[in-house]
Amino acid sequence: MTQTFDALRLLVVEDHQFQRMVAVKVMTGLGVASVQEAEDGQDALDKIAASTDPIDITICDLDMPGMDGIEFIRHVAEKKLTSAIVVASAMEPELIRTVEDMAAEHGMKVLGTLEKPINPEKVKTLFEQFLSEQAAAGSGSGSSELVITKDMLITAIQDGQIIPWFQPKVLISNGQWVSCEALARWQHPEKGMIYPGQFINEVETFGLMDEMTESIISRSIEQIKQWQSEGRLINTSVNISPSMLGNIQLPEKLMQMIKAVGIGPELLTLEITESAVMENVAHCLSTLARLKMKGFTLSIDDFGTGYSSMQQLNRIPFSELKIDQSFVKDAVSDPTRRAIVEANIELARKLKLKTVAEGLESAADWQLLNELQCDVAQGYFVGKPMPADQFSDWEAEWKQTYSSLSSNTSDQDET
Ligand code: C2E
Ligand code: MG
Ligand code: MG
Q1: What number is the average pLDDT over the span 58-85?
Q2: By Cβ atoms counted within 10 A, which residue in 163, 181, 266, 335 is the most buried?
Q3: Which atom of ligand 1 is nearest to the CA of 136?
Q4: Which residues line ligand 1 (CB under 6 A)?
Q5: C-alpha 300 to ligand 3 mean position (Å)
């Protein structure tokens, strides 16, 4: 699908007149109608203040006379003056990462970085990423804020509007599809598709997590059974909210559910985020131990974003560790993130845990994770979350992608 960028509002902050002209030309060439220019940080702040419409993306150089890019980004991030920032700079990656962290501390996302001269294809990819993240967050340009009430959610759960989509996971060693993750999607009859980022917190706040999860799990189990009847054993993960781990009935309840459908516990994985478990280890431990005892697989989600000690990790009977996508995403170009991914894989190997890398988006990500001997891959590069009935088309497509990957690798080996 070709996306149009005409509704985007941009600001290019660059002291070098020629570079600025090139950047503006690239943006207008991609169809963006509103591109403002500024020659340093102060000029940019003035332009933002004078602008009648909010700026979506600010493309910013770091090294500028007057107010430099770092100072400018701090101002922008603190006051949320723009939705996203793209850093266009020749500075070393470590410095750019520090700037990203600084912006993130203030809740501002650095969409990506651009080398100079600016490459239109890279810009296009960043804009597409921006628009899809906006759509996923439901706060795209011009869209109205979604207010979710408890009654809306009760109806949605009762009427089966919240269903799982499935994202495939494949073995890195041979590309084989072995498992998937069930991710909640709310198909609202009037508002269209609503993503978890927009409603999971509300489900939790309104005390409806048990009901929603039960519905997701029950549909996922039906799907596992369907795959099983087609001769495929696809282990499926569901996300378990921390609040549910206090429920001592959970292991028994899950057992009843799988027995009723006729699948074994080894086909169901329960994902629990690292931060959720670490917040209350003692509280979760007995439920986790009983789930494990009954034969379910336990997976530690978003690993690296919480603070677990080796000792805590050892006490909890996890079998799988999912490396958070924030580390995987730029590991190819950022030596620090690569080192973190590498260390996580090493740690998992020592603790005899299977590793799943989340958020692989390119062939280069795949090659790196292959090199680092990660076990399983999950990411847009392999496949996006989708309704179960799209899996046969996806698998055919993935087989082609994988075979071209392997032939590229053997070409390289021969040279
Ligand atoms: P998660 O469990 O870490 O799920 C992975 C998220 O990363 C999914 O977002 C998935 O669509 C996205 N993702 C996968 N590969 C890529 C990639 O290559 N690039 C990018 N940019 N993103 C990728 P989604 O579906 O929006 O879910 C977000 C979070 O919402 C999940 O994070 C999970 O914490 C929560 N969630 C989703 N479904 C449920 C549910 O049924 N119950 C509970 N309690 N939480 C859920
Ligand atoms: Mg998950
Ligand atoms: Mg995750």
Answers
A1: 88
A2: 181
A3: 26
A4: 136, 167, 183-184, 195-197, 200, 213, 216, 239, 241, 271, 301-302, 325, 358-361, 378-380, 385
A5: 9
Contacts for 178 with CB less than 8 Å, ≥ 6 apart: 169, 170, 171, 234, 235, 376
- Could you tell me the distance, in angstroms and rounded to a whole number, from the CA of residue 104 to the centre of ligand 1? 19
What is the per-residue DSSP string for 157-224? HHTT-EEEEEEEEEETTT--EEEEEEEEEEEETTTEEE-HHHHHHHHHHTT-HHHHHHHHHHHHHHHH
Topology given in CATH for the domain delimited by 145-414: TIM Barrel (3.20.20)
- Averaged pLDDT, 211-228: 97
Give the pLDDT band of residue 118 (cuts 50, 70, 90): confident
What is the predicted pLDDT for the residue at 36? 95
Percent of the residues in the chain that have a pLDDT greater than 90, as a whole number = 62
Residues β-bridged to residue 35: 10
Q: Supply 321's token pair.
A: 């560790």
Handedness of CA 153, 248, 281, 297 (dihedral sign): negative
Place 140 in a pLDDT band, splitting at 50, 70 and 90: very low
Asked which of 74-88, 148-162, 298-312 is least confident by mean pLDDT, the reply is: 298-312
Q: Residue 69 C-alpha to ligand 3 middle, in angstroms?
A: 32
Q: Give 9-136's CATH code, choosing from 3.40.47.10, 1.10.260.40, 3.40.50.150, 3.40.50.2300.
A: 3.40.50.2300
Residue whose Cα lies nearest atom 29 of ligand 1: it is 196
- In tens, the pLDDT along 73-105 reads 988 888 888 989 999 887 777 788 788 888 887
User: In the chain, what are the domain boundaries?
Assistant: 9-136, 145-414
Q: Determine contact, residues 271/238, Cβ cutoff 8 Å.
A: yes
Among 128, 157, 200, name the best residue to mutate to test ligand 1's pocket (greatest count of ligand atoms within 8 A of Cβ).
200
- Which one has a higher pLDDT value, 18 or 358? 358
